[in-house]
Structure formats: structure tokens, C-alpha cells
Amino acid sequence: MGMSVTISVATEQDAEQIFRLQYLCFQSEAALYGNYRIAPLVQTLDSVREEVASDCVFVARLGEEVVGSVRGRLTEDGAALIGRLCVHPRLQGHGIGARLLRAAEAALVERHGAKKFRLSAGHRSEGNLRLYRRVGYETVGTAQGADGVPMIVLEKPASTYATTA
Q1: Do residues 62 and 55 touch, judged by C-beta distance below 8 A?
Q2: Within a 13 Å sphere around the CA of 138, how many CA atoms are in the beta-carbon half?
Q3: CA 137 to CA 158: how far, in whole Å?
Q4: ∠92-56-10 over CA atoms, to 5°?
Q5: How many other β-carbons are positioned within 10 Å of the β-carbon of residue 131?
Q6: Which terminus of the chain, N or C, has less C-beta within 10 A?
Q7: End-to-end CA distance of the chain
Q8: Cα distance between residue 31 and residue 54, in whole Å
Q9: Residue 137 DSSP symbol
Q10: CB-based burial of residue 152 (10 Å sphere; 0-12 exposed, 13-18 middle, 19+ buried)?
Q11: Of the candidates 103, 92, 85, which has an alpha carbon nearest to the alpha carbon of residue 165?
């Protein structure tokens, strides 16, 4: 009998696995843009530890292994900024990313009073954009990433998180 993937709040003991997973998962994004200096690849382990301690961070686990992760935090305008969603390449396409998003959305509304959700994806990241649109996000603009990658900015009202869950 196989194990099932569980979603839970990240602990400080998860930081190193999140760091390694993020580095693995964002290689394909870096290749897509020909830029291996994108933010998820240059983030330090200490910075990941700080985010786990201060932000809303969820992990997907298969047994003891962290196979997915997402982070969220409330911004000054009441929006919840969601980012660094990643799922191990061998488990992509099984709904884990959507489950992680739903967990983060629920916590950001229930614990932090988020009014809307905001995230961004590289303009060539069709798979990511498809997922975000499928769960209710709509394009609201564009931005330039600090790493130079053109980004699509997407949002959805927090009131819709329950209907897409």
C-alpha cells in the first residue's frame, strides 16, 4: 500500500529540505529563462529559515520527505502575497500544488485576515500560469522581477478561496 501526501505547516526542522527542494524545482524555471540567478536559486538557507519562522509556510510530505512547499505573508495593503510554490518534479501533475495553495489561502484568511491573494509567475511559465488560472487567479498586471525576468501578476479575492478549495 502506497503512502499518501499530507499537507502541514512547516517547522524549523523542514527548512533545509525546503531549501534543497526549491533549488531542485526552480532549475526548470531558470532554464526556461536562461537565467540561473533567479531569486529561488540564490536564496540562502538562513533566509529560508527566517521565512519558515515568520511567514505562513506549508509543506507537502510523502512520509518524512518534503515534496512540496509554498509561502505566504500579508502585505500592508491587506493582500496575501503567495510565492515559491514548488512540487518535486517526480510528483508534479497530481494536484499537490493546488492543495498547497488552498492550505496557504485558508491560513492567510483565517489567521491573518487576508482580503485578496496575489502571486506572480514568469511570463513563459505556462504550466504555472495554467494552475493559477484554474484555481481562480486572474491577471492584473505585469512586473519586472529583481532578477530581470518579466512576470505576470495575478490576484483573486480572498472571498473566493473556499469556492476553489
Answers
A1: no
A2: 6
A3: 11
A4: 65
A5: 20
A6: N
A7: 27
A8: 30
A9: -
A10: buried
A11: 103
- Identify the residue whose cell numbers are 529560508: 48
- CB atoms < 10 A from the CB of 125, how many? 19
Going residue by residue through the chain, which has 165 residues, state the pLDDT in tens, using 9 for 90 and above: 456 999 999 999 999 999 999 999 999 999 999 999 899 999 999 999 999 999 999 999 999 999 999 999 999 888 999 999 999 999 999 999 999 999 999 999 998 899 999 999 999 999 999 999 999 999 999 999 888 899 999 999 998 755 444
DSSP secondary structure letter of residue 4: -
**Taking Cα atoms as reference points, which of 122, 112, 60, 44 lies closest to residue 81?**
112
Cell numbers representing residue 120 in the block: 506572480
Cβ partners under 8 Å of residue 91, min gap 6: 5, 60, 62, 67, 68
The reported pTM is 0.91
Instruction: Report CA-CA distances (Å) from 1 to 4, 6, 8, 34, 92.
Output: 10, 16, 22, 41, 21
Sequence length of the chain is 165
